[in-house]
User: Fold these one by one.
Assistant:
Number 1:
Amino acid sequence: MTLLTVDVGNSQTVLATFDGPRRRDCWRVTTAPKATADELRMLWRGLLRDTTVTGVAVCSAVPALLPALRQLLDSLEVPVVLIGPGVRTGVPLHVDNPREVGADRVVTALAAHEMFGRRPDGSGRPVVVVDFGTSTNVDAVGPDGQFLGGALAPGVEVSHDALASRAAQLRSVELTVPAHAIGKNTVAALQSGLVLGFAGLVDGLVGRIAAELVAQFGTAPVVVATGGLAPLMADNCRTISEREPDLTVHGLRLAFERQHSR
């Protein structure tokens, strides 16, 4: 049995196949917000090749793409789960307005709890998830798997693009770790500000959120990095201890299993 999971983000879409809990293949492609159902079908078929899919789980942060996604999913002859309002994931949403929470954040919280929040003795611990995507999300998950909210900041690439487009004397640079925090030229200075600067932003937010979790639950959280830029950013953040770049697709697998185990 092969489950296809699809995490449609604002910039990239991550597709992964699972054989039970084991992830087999994983792909990252550029999100096309105006893609049709037929174009999505061709993309999926091209990646999957001869793989026989027995189920599909999808979440999308791109509202414009939802009609095409629904059209494609409705045409499939396998069990399908499209995460959204009204779909039970088993994640309690302890926020003011649960409908404001993106589906990707919900299933990411689910995976974070199951993969990092459960101790060997069965007890739970809080988790802080740092998702380095189009936005930089720092989310708090309670010891029972409850989503507690978090902080949202611009993503590293979004800030980079904004600087390049709005500052006449600045230009696009490769996002890489600079040798020193004090840049001796424009490129090095931008890399320092973007990579090391955002690492400092993350460490500051994680420190404050962790302190609130300790005050509430009496135990320090484990901090997990995920998202497309996690491999670049995680090593520069002093507060991050765990890494799983594709945490959301693991959450989609878990959500699918919960829907179809009833």
Number 2:
Amino acid sequence: MSLIVLLALLPGRALSDANSDNFQHFQKLLDQHLIEKSLPGNALLSAFDYRSALAGDSLDQTLKEQRETLKAFDPSNLQGQAESVAFWINAYNFFMLDQILTERPGGELVSSVWDYGGRINPFVDSVFERKKFDIGGQDYSLSQMEKEILLGSDYADKGWKDARIHFAVNCASVGCPPLRDVVYDADNLEDLLAENTRRAFNTDRHLKVEGDTLYVTELFKWYEEDFEEAAGSGKAFIKKWADSSIAGRVADTSTMKFIDYDWDLNRPANFSEFR
């Protein structure tokens, strides 16, 4: 029996994943310009080298080809939970980078995603609310991809909603959980969601314990309901997904406080660890 026929007969096995097919140009950007760094304690940081990307000759073409690929793809063709969740994570992360690389006021990179509007200029929609990213001929906002699809009611009804999404979608800021150097797909989704969440908790930007006080990323303030729905409480969510040594220290705390989110652009110069 040929390998192709054998794979076709395996239950739940797709011959091709929509993510590897539709995010090749995004993967090229990650291969060339995303820097991952492991720190003591199995922590993980990443930064995107926007300067090197902008200095390259092929950036505009790479971004254009990726946009056109997504414009031509019908997301109703996605097959199953893993492929679908992976697709929308990839779409969010690509369009966030695309936004920063293509809209540069005065020809300069923004210092923060809030430079586009929102908090600093409430009369201009924030980058998260701009309905401008074309997938299958329909314009989406980043907020729609995250809150209405990945964390929305349809996925919740299907049992697909996963609070670890907050450690996978990347808002191009120092305070975000790290952007990864590979696109998500049906095969690596579960491993990456678990790893991202666990390794984020190993960094002081996302979690630290001082005495009986637990300090956590403001994600746990903004999306408290998601973590409560997933595990009963934010603290219980951390204990479920953190390394055992972290979970043990968290269990001994009685107070939770929040770490100020760092909205500086996630470029290497903004991380002391990359200087």
Number 3:
Amino acid sequence: MNDAVRMPPPLGPRHWPAWLGIGIAALLARVPWSLQRVLGRGFGRLLMRVFGSRRRVAAHNLALCFPELDADAQAALLRRSFEELGIGLFEFARAWWGSVEPMRGKVAVEGLEHLEAARAGGRGVIIISGHFVTLELAARLMCDHAPLAGMYRPHDGAAMEWAVLRGRLRYATAMFTREELRPALRHLKQGGLLWFAPDQDTRRGDSVFVPFFGRPAYSLTSTHQLARLSGAAVLGFAHVRHDDGSYTLRLTPAFEDFPSSDATADTARVMAAIETMIRAAPAQYLWIHRRFKRQPDQPDNALYR
């Protein structure tokens, strides 16, 4: 178990508001799944109205990524994306602090044979996905079939970090922060499975510009670096929530000839795989992130002004 969870929870007065929010979320995690989906759609529509800056970011991302859609179709996709986000927030709470028993009988898992083939001979496996609103619950459901560890960015608040990490370690074999490279590599070299999503623009880690929906996107080379240093195979992990509340989890065959000697080419392959996942379920992607905030020879956030 991670050192942060071995420590007692932070209980000082300055953490009380965070604990109140965590308590409310833990209670909402126990609401029946059918009701969570109804409440989530309504909550998502509320978020769309209240958080105007994020609504504008999402709308601009959709316009950049789906120029073939007319204005009405883009607006409909925007509304649906916020509804899916609202449901996703309930999914996060349920994954961390609730039960996934209602979902276990309504999940289809495909491609486990690709994972077994990649693990042949004790080889480690890197499992990549994107920042979908379904990612946390999908990871928990996949842990029923494969011993996943995860790589993540810690929460800024100490109480939230303690509670979320403890929740994740109910089902993940281990969790590594982005700074814990050596333990993550050791896990892979010992034949472990490591899940993470390398599809956001971040100032941490080595990044390059590669195509993403036909535009330059500043993208982490971490998949290439981890595979090169560990000898691990790389698989894609797609996950979709259907309208009836069921899920499909799909593992793709391992990337061939990966890693190569070219970090940029490998990163482009990773982003292309994630783009394919997004096109299969565009409303369930986290469009509120400024994915194109850095552009070659342009000031940061130029596309969002």
Number 4:
Amino acid sequence: MIDDLYSIEKSAYRDSVIHRLDARVKLLVALAGIVAIVAMPYSTKIYELGAVLFAFFLVLWACSRLSPAVYLRRLALILPFGIFLIGFQVFVKNPYYEVFHPVTTLPFGIEIYAESVEFASILLVKFIVSISFIILLSSTTKMQDLLEASGRLGLPREFTLPLGMMIRYIFVFADMFSKIRSAMATRCFDPLDRTLPYRYRLCQLGYTVGMIFIRSYEQGERTYTSMLCRGYGANACLHIGKKPLSAGEVSFFAGALTLIALSAVLIYLHP
């Protein structure tokens, strides 16, 4: 997971048309796509809207000049969490149907219903489209830019300052963890090495976790002391300067928002 953190931030530092867009535009477009697919009332029309939004996502991803392997790898990391919840729906009689037709019967009297399979597939479309826009946003926008964009959009300073500190501290912790992992590797210790006794491996991992907690606490104390020396207090805030949008960014935002809104409305109203 630490390596994935660095990989995500590394992708955000690349250069393309999408990377150069203002973070506010990308954030609002991603939110619009997620809201459109989630707000669509339950029906098979979600397949059509999902196809339109996913095609729009593919266009944006192609313009970002990122490899499809980047998207597939990150989707594969998140997909198991959604598949577990979505797959469970095929065994449940949901309230959207009055009649259920069993597809197959498993041991212990467990039945899979055709209507529940359809419901699970609709949830899967919503999940993939929403996650795709989040992956696009995180892969083309730096964390600090996202934070500043949220502040410019009206996020209170009580949130922006802690989030800014958290973003910085995540990478400090990642560097600390990398050093501990390198130290373990130089001592030829592998927690997955089955030739070592299980109790010994468990004991060493316990020492490692304790060391991480202690070093994190010490780092937190040093960070807080540094903040006090720089005038941090109850009224401190993260300075976010004004940044006007260019004509091209406004045009792209208006076009993207129109496409998403019209697609949702026309598909919903189509008989």
